[in-house]
């Protein structure tokens, strides 16, 4: 009889815990695993699963190859086939170092130089992975949280410059009905409309698809006067913080955030960025 009472009490407690967890607004824990990004040529990847997205961080090049939303749609669409250009091999994030004392922090393709990695933090609320270029001159830090990722260029090779880019496919592919918002105004801009100039503080831009209930935002933590140009290609976006044409401008450690917002409302994107601000 006592045993039955204990079991009943335990079951009741478990039910209360489950109810409390399901009733709360707390995000699900982050899970770090290891596997292959099958859509990106079976590249070995860190797989970081969060409440609102799954990230595939390619282990050799140190860049994102896929970013999957709640509906299973990839907003990057990288694959390494040489010669695929905008249709695959150029895509990714942050694609930061291109022929500047090496080519680093890009999912591994024919032009990417390798880097080594180390997992420094692995908890249910925070995963940190640090990549160091094979020449030892560059270091990039990835911090994954329940609602976003932060990429920080921790070490910059002396005398060289970099940019940080999102080259991808809003909602899974580039459509004429895709659109973007930015910190320069509160208007919706068609995906093929460029932005040439320096985004005003706080520097952010977000991409959407009329078929999707969410948007992907990118936010540069440090305000500057460098260009943050956006131009479209037939098969992908080209957003570059610290980029104009093929010129790079960033020379110091900087931090950039990226994540999904479950809204297509400008004010919700703005609020999301404001919550990240220190």
Structural write-up:
This protein is mostly beta strands and 278 residues long. It has a single domain, classed as Beta-galactosidase, Chain A, domain 5, CATH 2.70.98. The chain is built from two helices and 18 strands. The strands form four sheets. It has a nine-stranded antiparallel β-sheet with strand order 5-6-7-8-18-13-12-10-11, covered by helices on one side. It has a four-stranded antiparallel β-sheet with strand order 1-2-3-4, with no helix packed on it. Strands 9-15-14 form a three-stranded antiparallel β-sheet, with no helix packed on it. A hairpin with a 5-residue loop joins strand 3 (54-58) and strand 4. The longest helix has 22 residues, at 2-23. It is globular and about 45 Å long.
What descriptors fit this protein?
2 helices; 4-stranded antiparallel sheet; disordered N terminus; 278 residues; Beta-galactosidase, Chain A, domain 5; mainly beta; 9-stranded antiparallel sheet; single chain
């Amino acid at each position: 009889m006592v045993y039955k009472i204990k079991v009943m009490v335990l079951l009741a407690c478990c039910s209360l815990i489950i109810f409390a967890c399901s009733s709360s607004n707390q995000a699900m824990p982050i899970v770090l695993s290891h596997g292959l990004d099958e859509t990106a040529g079976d590249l070995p990847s860190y797989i970081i699963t969060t409440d609102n997205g799954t990230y595939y961080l390619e282990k050799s090049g140190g860049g994102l190859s896929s970013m999957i939303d709640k509906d299973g749609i990839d907003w990057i669409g990288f694959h390494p086939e040489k010669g695929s250009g905008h249709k695959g091999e150029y895509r990714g994030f942050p694609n930061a170092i291109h022929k500047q004392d090496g080519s680093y922090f890009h999912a591994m393709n024919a032009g990417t130089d390798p880097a080594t990695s180390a997992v420094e933090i692995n908890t249910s609320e925070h995963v940190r992975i640090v990549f160091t270029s094979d020449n030892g001159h560059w270091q990039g830090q990835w911090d994954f949280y329940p609602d976003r990722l932060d990429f920080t260029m921790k070490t910059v090779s002396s005398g060289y410059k970099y940019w940080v880019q999102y080259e991808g496919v809003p909602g899974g592919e580039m459509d004429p009905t895709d659109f973007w918002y930015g910190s320069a105004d509160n208007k919706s801009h068609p995906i093929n409309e460029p932005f040439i100039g320096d985004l005003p503080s706080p520097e952010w831009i977000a991409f959407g698809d009329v078929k999707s209930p969410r948007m992907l935002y990118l936010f540069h933590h440090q305000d500057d006067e460098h260009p943050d140009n956006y131009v479209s290609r037939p098969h992908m976006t080209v957003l570059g913080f610290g980029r104009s044409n093929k010129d790079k401008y960033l020379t110091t450690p900087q931090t950039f955030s990226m994540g999904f917002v479950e809204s297509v409302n400008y004010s919700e994107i703005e609020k999301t960025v404001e919550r990240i601000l220190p």
